[in-house]
Every structure is written in C-alpha cells, then in structure tokens.
Amino acid sequence: MSTALDTARLSPPPRQSLAKLLVWGLIFTVLAASWSGAEIRPWALITDGANMGTFMADFFPPNFSDWRYYLEEMLITLQIAIWGTALAVVCAVPFGLLCAENVAPAWINQPVRRLMDSFRAINEMVFAMLFVVAVGLGPFAGVLALFVHTTGILAKLFSEAVEAIDPRPVEGIRATGANALEEVVFGIIPQVMPLWISYSLYRFESNVRSATVVGMVGAGGIGVVLWEIIRGFYFAETCAVMLIIIVTVSLIDIASSRLRKLFI
Amino acid sequence: MTKAAKVMVPAIKVTRLHKTFSCCKALDGVSLDINPGEMVALIGASGSGKSTLLRHVAGLAVSDAGPQGGSIEALGRPVQACGRLAADIRTTRARIGFVFQQFNLVGRLPVMTNVLTGSLGRLPLWRSLSGLFPLEDRERAFDALTRVGIPETAWQRASTLSGGQQQRAAIARTLVQRAQIILADEPIASLDPESSRRVMETLATINAEDKTTVVVCLHQVDFAIRYCPRTIALKKGAVIYDGPSAALTPSMLRDLYGAEADELGAGIQGSASFVTGETAALAAAAG
After folding, report:
1. φ, ψ (nearest 5 deg) of residue B81
2. A35, A153, A160, B17: least buried by Cβ within 10 Å?
3. Distance, in angstroms, between B118 CA and closest chain A CA?
4. In this predicted model, what pLDDT tens digit does every residue of B210-266 receive, in sequence order?
5. In terms of CA atoms, which chain A residue is nearest residue B91?
6. Inter-chain CB proximity B120 and A176 less than 8 Å
7. Which CATH number fits domain A67-263: 3.40.220.10, 1.10.1200.30, 1.10.3720.10, 1.10.150.130?
8. What is each CA distance from A14 to A8, A20, A23, B117, in whole angstroms?
9. What does residue A50 show for φ and ψ, rounded to 5 degrees?
10. Over pLDDT 70: what percentage of chain B?
11. Residue of A175, A185, A194 with shortest CB distance to B93
C-alpha cells in the first residue's frame, strides 16, 4: 500500500500533465496552420539541390583582391556602430530613468515609455531609409538610424534595471537631506551601473551586425559594398566580404563578452 | 541665557500623530517631547509603531491627511503637519541623521563616499553631482570614520564590510551630516551581541560628547535600560510609558510585550534582573 502511495507521489498531478499536453497541442496546431502561409517546401531543397551546388561553387574560392577596400568599409561600419551606440547610451540614461516607475510619476513615465516603444517598434532598416532621404546617402544616416532604434531598446532595458534596485540605499541618501537628482546619482546609478554597462556592450555587438545591413539601403559601410556585389553576381567577392563580416563580428562578440564579465 | 532659551525648544515635538495603514492603525494619537541632548529608547513589540514613528519624524513617511493627522516639529522647524511634508523638509532632514536597521549604505560605493553623502544636504549641486567633495568634508568624513573605529575601511566597498562595521559607517554618515538629532531605527536588530554593544556604545558616546539628541528604537529591553536614561514604550501605536528606564518593572514589560512575552521570556527575565541589579548603580552614577 505504501508503495502505491509512493509511485503516485513521484508522477506529476493529472491536471498538470493535461495542461502540458494542451500546450504542446497548441504549439503543433500553430506550426501546422502556418505551413502553407510560409510556403514551406522542404522537397525544393532536394529537387533544386544540383542548382544550389553550382551556386555554392561560384562562392569558392573567395576573391580577396579588393581586401583593402573591404577592410576600409568594414572599419566604417564599426565606426557607425560605435557612434550609433554611444549616442544611444547617452540619451537612454535620462529616458531610462524617466521610464522607471520608481523614479518618475505615471504622467511622465507613461508618455516617455510610449515614445520609446515607437523608437523600438520601427526597425533600424526603416529608419535608415528615412534618414538617407533626410541627410543624404552615407554613414551618418546609418549612425542616426542605429541611434534612434538603440535608444528605444536601451531606455527600456535601463529602466527595468532601475525598477529592480534595492530602495533602501536610496532612502539612506534621502535621509541626509539630498535632493532628487543626488538620490539618483548616489543611490540609483551605482546600483545599476554593472547592468547598464553590460546592456550597452551587448547592444554594441548587435549594432555591429545591424550596421552591416543598414548599408544595403545606402547608409554607408560594408553593407553598400555587399549590396553592389550581390546585385552584380560577384559571388567570389561576396564570399570574401561575408568572411570579413563573420570574423569581425565574432571578434567584437568575444571582446565585448570578456569586457562584460569584468563589470558583473 | 541662550542655553536656557535653547532648552525651551524641544529637539523633537510630536503632537497627536495618527497614521492608518490599509490593515490597521499604526500610530494612534502619539504625542511626545524630546529635549536637546537626551538619549531616549523607543521600545515596544513588533508592529507597535516604533519604526513608523521614527520614519515620520525624519519625514520619510507622512501621517494621515487632514487636521486629525497631527504634526511633528524638529529643532524648531516643522517636519510635517496634517499629512503634508514641510516645504523645507530637505533642510530639516540634513540636520537629522537616520540610522537604519539594514544600514542602507550603497554597497558598490566606497565607505568613504557613503560617509561623504552626509554632506549632500549643504553642498551646491555642481559639487555633489561631480563627486568633487570639498577637502574640509573629506577630512570630516575620515575623522568620523576614525571616531567610529573603522578608518582602515575607508576605500573598501561598503558591501565588503561586516554588519557591525556597516552600521558604524552609517553612524559616521550622520556625523558628517553634523546631525543635531540621530534617529536610529532598530540599529542592532541585525547584529551579533558584540557588534550590538559597540554600535550602542558609539551612539552613547556621540550623545555624551556632542550633546546630539539620540532616539533609538530597540527590541531588546536590556539595551534600552543600559544605554538610555529615558524610555518611551509604545503599544498598538500609543504611548503607554514615558519615563526613566530604571523605573521599568517586569510586570510593565510583560504587559508591553503581551503574547510576545513568552518568546521573549528569557530576555525579559534577564532585563528584569538587570533592572534590579543596576538601579543602584544608575542612581550612584547620577549622584
């Protein structure tokens, strides 16, 4: 009798397993319903296999003859990411604080949050197209596109860090007769600094990736090169540029994750 | 002459203070006067309203709105009345040091910076925001750390200190503030007995040497009796005893702590014997 009780205790209650089953059922239903809309044709990979093989063969060996030009453009891409991120961090600090429930009252944090939502909702590619029209072709349009989009993202992440702080040290500062700004500088910012730095570095990594594509709409950097050679069917050159992008992005990722560990 | 005039103004004057939380009445018409230079213990069971009262005196909480809320004055300036903080509350807060149960230091900042925040109330904004504290304040902060006995920790992060050291750093912060009143909210509740003794000793020394008014909210009655000449006891948000600590009797303590008396039994017994044992010594010290 006691063994029967023990086995019952070892398996989850029936209600819980039924809920689990329902969730799996829902997941498969959604996947099946999206099949035709997304035009999933796995057999195309097999029937067109030969074509793809020929296409892949065109990429190799990569043609690095213009490597100086590619590296210069890659550097510009990095510089776009650096400035886009730096401007965004500077603006995200006040916006992030104003978005935080424990810093700003609802009549301030709600409108600021909606503004940040709109910055975030629109992809940097769309902003890039708009800024190309506004400030002309070139890297500056890319900087502005990354800046606006990243401000929206960082402000949200920064404000979430601020909302998670321990309120007691802030009260300790308040009790000394400090004003609101001093409470923020001495009570809040030291607490959120490691997270803010970590988020900023993470966004820098993703901005290096994004900066390679904003170029495709004319906003400067390696993206412009990539777009031109793909359209010209220069696949060996495309391969070289893609390799340069992969190596650069990996290096930045490794460096920034090392750096982030220092601050946590 | 001036001294006599000063004595006329109480350091803290609480008048018919009422505070209602959604669940219950936390403060029920509390009135009390504390004179400059006194060292007063505020005792009572958990939930008796002693922490709430201290937070109101520092203007960190506001009483019930309307005329029934009551009022508080500190150092001759209004702190709050009818549920509204005074307009110059920050100036008054700068003159009142607050010591918290959980120390409330900023863990990632050096002890020195934490102590220097005591000067924020009187510094111009550009100085405080740039972190360029005047030499005079930095000297003062170091002296304060020396006085509380932890100068060697000045450039450590506050989070690396033990509880007792953090609490002494918090007291050093009130010294940099040049606080004329120190309010300590259960300053020893999270500390071991030896650290507790040192923290209470530090507060008593500051009270004796600087004539700073000290109000300590305590759970342990024996500490109240040992360090504070006057005790105010709260029960369910009302003052039920206000007088010399030496006159507290075991039956009074039993009434005060009610159901908690059993769990605190040993402590109360201990303090009772402490009272009887120490009354003569206190009388001798007074004489």
Report:
1. -150, 140
2. A35
3. 5
4. 999 999 999 888 889 899 999 999 988 999 899 998 888 888 888 777 666 554 544
5. A177
6. yes
7. 1.10.3720.10
8. 10, 10, 15, 58
9. -65, -45
10. 87
11. A175
